[in-house]
Amino acid sequence: MPKVILGIVGPIASGKGVMKKHIEEKYQAKDCRYSTILRDVLVRLDIANSRENLQLLSTVLRQNFGEDLLARVIVKDAKNIESDIVVIDGVRRLADIKYLQEMDNFYLVAVDADPKIRYERLVKRNENEGDANKTYEQFLQDHLAEADYEVPVVMSKADFIIQNGEDLEKFYGHIDEIINKVFK
Prior knowledge:
This protein is α/β, with parallel strands linked by helices. The chain has nine helices and five strands; from the N terminus they run E-H-E-H-H-H-E-H-E-H-H-H-E-H.
């Protein structure tokens, strides 16, 4: 059975991480995150792991070393991971899926939810410095940042789309349906 690679795209706090975790726990999948590369660099440089710093580092790297820099690293990582399923979290740009789409076993999954629900999730989880104190207006403004403005375009290329505004069990059910389809 060939390895299946699932790329997950969606706006901020739509449920990408929850989806990834469910697939890891239920299907023993392994993961790759574009932000892991960036977070590693920020930690190494002793720079705060804020959304703004992640976006700035991504921009600087891509402008100087090519828009597809992170995509090349992720494809290499995904190929080297020993697992039947590899989940790639943090797809944001068409360049991110450029090489993945060349693979027969790659599927892009879009996850979305109402902006107010996503805002509540972001503040509650406080994943990046400053998220807990963010206003709804600042949250909406984050979607216009260079790192996130291409997300809707990438979502339009998805093989599967999940609306994540319902309860967790229904969300898991949608994910399981996708896994069943890609392994048929």
